[in-house]
């Protein structure tokens, strides 16, 4: 079986066993997707590139401890998010850099391109107005699709803190983005304020 035909779990095992090609194949498969995750989290291509490099180095070193309790992609995703959050904590100011309109494998739907772009810009601006402590949990829960428990573990805070920060952030977003809400969806839970506003959730990107 060639490296390209192996499963992600097989590649991790092969890398841990000393195969010099296995991890390179894993990076080749998932680099674009993990890059999109880093860029969405940091909104700065240079910072995202550095975080991604750090994440893959961490994954390279930690591959031997992978126990297949989750999918390899989920494992990589968490490492990338942690690398991004480490960089966020280390810097004082966050530059405002627009998110790319689409990421790898994320074609624009056949809608009005100008309206789509304007909606994205409105959402991005609204997210920038949130404090970092509110923005990061919302990105993880509402955009990346992590559970409250997973987010709490990633950020090293209590689940109740994640819920309260998300609630406060969503309330602020609801005021700014209220005009974007579909009239037929007025009864939706405020947690959907970010989803469907031009920023696809992880489940949507994976086709679930």
TrEMBL record:
Gene3D superfamilies: 1.10.1740.10, Winged helix-like DNA-binding domain superfamily/Winged helix DNA-binding domain. Residues 122-173 form the RNA polymerase sigma factor 70 region 4 type domain. Residues 26-93 form the RNA polymerase sigma-70 region domain. GO terms for molecular function: DNA binding; sigma factor activity. Keywords: DNA-binding, Sigma factor, Transcription, Transcription regulation. Belongs to the sigma-70 factor family. ECF subfamily. This is RNA polymerase sigma factor SigM. It comes from Actinokineospora bangkokensis.
